[in-house]
Amino acid sequence: MKSAVAITLILSGVFIVALPPLSDAWLGHLYAGMLASGANSVNIDVGMPDLYRIGCFMLGAAMIFVGLAALLTGSRQTYATQSTAALFH
């Protein structure tokens, strides 16, 4: 695996893991803005389901793990050697 692909996997995994907390922060900011504008009460029930949160964490963690494993094991050299050898046989 090329290092650029591994880094992309890691960064995408971090973004996916951070998505639920970021959406919670945005929703809290939205509540505060509505209450500051003079509303007496705010009732918005659009939170993320727990299954979605667990799925985001598991998918993101798996992507980070695969990216780190590829970078740390040096699989880039093995992949390049194998693909070059396959071209000439």
Question: What does this protein structure show overall?
Answer:
With 89 residues, this protein is mainly alpha-helical. The chain is 80% helix and 0% strand. It has three helices and no strands. Helix 1 packs antiparallel against helix 2.
List the helices and strands and how they pair.
Blueprint: H1 3-36, H2 50-73, H3 75-87
The biggest sheet amounts to: none
Based on helices, strands and strand pairing, what is the structural class?
A: mainly alpha
Number of strands: 0
Shape: elongated
> H/E element string?
HHH
Indicate the mean pLDDT.
82
Quickly count the helices.
Answer: 3
* Backbone CA Rg: 21 Å
Query: What distance lies between the first and last C-alpha atoms, to the nearest angstrom?
Result: 21 Å
Name the poorly predicted regions. Answer: none
Compact description:
The protein is mainly alpha-helical and 89 residues long.
Task: List the defining traits of the structure above.
mainly alpha, 89 residues
